[in-house]
């Protein structure tokens, strides 16, 4: 290999490590992302120009066209997307990466006949690439809300049989040796189907974990293709993503107090029927409704207010109004902070991004472990569009699917105002007894409209 | 079995790199605050777009008469570069919002 190219790959690999490291600290994250991006672009340009084989000009033209099309599309999607759609987008991009690895595998199968080791690498690239491709698309559709959870009967058993079948079939192809394109297409098809089957039963609330896992798999697929070409930048880059993604997956599972196998095999609401009945029986109390002016009075005479934002806030695009409310209350001498649950929004840290977008001061966002002891001396908690992360069932109802998940202990506060559009259950599909608590008043309505009313009432006081 | 041993002895360096890279990846991410999980996931996702290097190699080495390889390679390059450019751009946009206000 060209020595200049090798050095470029080496530099790119180092930028990946440094970039990933810097992405882990709030002050350096932005720079880290740019450093990794520069390394990636260097690697791409180097690959195109610094090789030592003859390349017909038509191939160059096609490569140029492909890069141009993809760059424009990727760029447009990235600058247009709303911040609330971020998890879907990551999932979609990830699927594209997987598809790319899959296609490389399909093409290279024809070129690498004979060597059992190379054949198994190609097969692994095809299988993992296609599983991440369709899996990510399903995750994307679910987060979009365009697809519901579908559980085929005995889906765990079914999925495991398909997975074992895939492994057995792959081994068979390797053992056979030789060139069997027909078998490869069967493998491709089976892997694509498995990707769908694997993600389809997993509940929407667990999607972030799944995306992180699929992200890790794409990294592994990239690393495998790297082995195929003996290409270090692909190998190291892919493995970094693979192991980082896996750790991130476990960190997220921890935040929800669930194990990975529980997420994948014990899909949320797996025992949905019994859970549903129990919830209905327990939550038959009455709900206290309130109005914007009553809530405004409550807030006006408080000393300490904690805002609990959830995904509902983001959907209603109410990040800006809530910031206005926060500033207004602060100007009246009230201590205001935001309680951020680790999985608020649709992804860990998603809520922080959304609030940062509307210029909320970083220091006002308090993480769960720090804010929980403060609820006892909080006068008013304002819950906007959050549900599962404040559901006391996580503490006291062992039959609840979210039992054991750490939550924000808002029920310790003196007053709780909950803004919600209706009495519908949360994203995880579980009823919330907090709504029936005596200290709770429900402020029904769209988050943006309700908060705007609240702000104007407060201004008149 | 012999083939496996042969593979290991031929690729010993590769295996060392593989194992060390796994540990680096784990160490880099272990203590990241949850605030940064979303941008981190998005950034790591952009990095996995490194697979585009393979897609480029496919296209560079393809015989211009081999329409299947060229066509599949073309799609692989497009998807890979969307992953790279879109991933980095969107991560940058997200992190832009975290910038400390003076």
UniProtKB/TrEMBL annotation, chain B:
Membrane topology: Multi-pass membrane protein
Transmembrane regions: 14-32, 44-62, 68-91
Catalyzed chemical reaction(s): NAD(+) + NADPH + H(+)(in) = NADH + NADP(+) + H(+)(out)
Segments forming domain NAD(P) transhydrogenase alpha subunit C-terminal: 15-100
Location of the protein in the cell: Cell inner membrane
Domain of life per record: Bacteria
Keywords, alphabetical: Cell inner membrane, Cell membrane, Membrane, NAD, NADP, Translocase, Transmembrane, Transmembrane helix
Purpose of the protein: The transhydrogenation between NADH and NADP is coupled to respiration and ATP hydrolysis and functions as a proton pump across the membrane.
Protein name as annotated: proton-translocating NAD(P)(+) transhydrogenase
Species for this entry: Lutibacter profundi
């Amino acid at each position: 290999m060209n020595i200049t190219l090798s050095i470029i790959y080496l530099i790119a690999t180092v930028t990946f490590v440094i970039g990933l490291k810097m992405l882990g600290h709030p002050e350096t994250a932005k720079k880290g992302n740019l450093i990794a991006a520069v390394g990636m672009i260097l690697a791409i340009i180097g690959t195109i120009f610094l090789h030592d084989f003859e390349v017909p000009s038509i191939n160059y033209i096609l490569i140029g066209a492909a890069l141009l099309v993809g760059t424009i599309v990727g760029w447009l999607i990235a600058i247009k997307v709303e911040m609330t759609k971020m998890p879907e987008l990551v999932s979609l991009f990830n699927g594209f990466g997987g598809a790319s690895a899959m296609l490389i595998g399909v093409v290279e199968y024809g070129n690498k006949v004979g060597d059992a080791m190379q054949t198994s690498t190609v097969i692994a690239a095809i299988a993992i690439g296609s599983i991440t491709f369709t899996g990510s698309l399903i995750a994307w559709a679910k987060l979009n809300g365009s697809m519901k959870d579908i559980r085929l009967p005995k889906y765990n058993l079914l999925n495991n049989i398909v997975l074992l079948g895939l492994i057995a079939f792959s081994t068979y192809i390797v053992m056979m040796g030789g060139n069997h394109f027909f078998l490869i297409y069967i493998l491709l098809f089976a892997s694509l189907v498995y990707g769908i089957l694997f993600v389809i039963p997993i509940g929407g609330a667990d999607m972030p974990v799944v995306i992180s896992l699929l992200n890790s798999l794409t990294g592994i697929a990239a690393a495998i293709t790297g082995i195929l070409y003996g290409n270090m930048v692909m190998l190291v880059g892919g493995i970094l993503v693979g192991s980082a993604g896996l750790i991130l997956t476990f960190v997220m599972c921890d935040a929800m107090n669930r194990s990975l196998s529980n997420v994948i095999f014990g899909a949320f609401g797996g025992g949905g029927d019994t859970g549903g009945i129990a919830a209905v029986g327990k939550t038959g109390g009455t709900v206290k409704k309130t109005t914007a002016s009553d809530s405004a009075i409550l807030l006006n005479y408080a000393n300490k207010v904690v805002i609990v934002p959830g995904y509902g806030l983001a959907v209603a695009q109410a990040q800006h109004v809530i910031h206005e409310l926060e500033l207004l209350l602060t100007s009246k001498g009230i201590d205001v902070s935001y309680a951020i649950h680790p999985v608020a929004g649709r992804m860990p840290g998603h809520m922080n991004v959304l609030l940062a977008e509307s210029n909320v001061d970083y220091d006002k966002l308090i993480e769960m472990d720090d804010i929980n002891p403060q609820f006892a001396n909080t006068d008013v908690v304002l819950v906007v569009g959050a549900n599962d992360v404040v559901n006391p069932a996580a503490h006291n109802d062992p039959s609840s699917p979210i039992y054991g998940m750490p939550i924000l202990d808002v029920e310790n506060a003196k007053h709780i105002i909950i803004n919600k559009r209706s009495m519908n259950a949360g994203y995880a599909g579980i009823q919330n007894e907090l709504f029936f608590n005596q200290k709770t008043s429900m402020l029904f309505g769209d988050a943006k409209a309700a908060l705007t009313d609240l702000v104007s009432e407060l201004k008149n006081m | 079995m012999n083939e496996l041993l042969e593979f290991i002895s031929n690729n010993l360096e590769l295996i060392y790199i593989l194992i060390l890279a796994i540990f680096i990846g784990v160490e880099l991410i272990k203590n990241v605050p949850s605030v940064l999980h979303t941008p981190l996931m998005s950034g790591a996702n952009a990095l996995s777009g490194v697979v585009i290097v393979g897609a480029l190699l496919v296209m560079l080495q393809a015989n211009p008469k081999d329409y299947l390889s060229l066509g599949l390679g073309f799609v692989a390059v497009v998807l890979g570069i969307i992953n790279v450019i879109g991933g980095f751009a969107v991560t940058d946009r997200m992190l832009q919002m975290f910038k400390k206000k003076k």
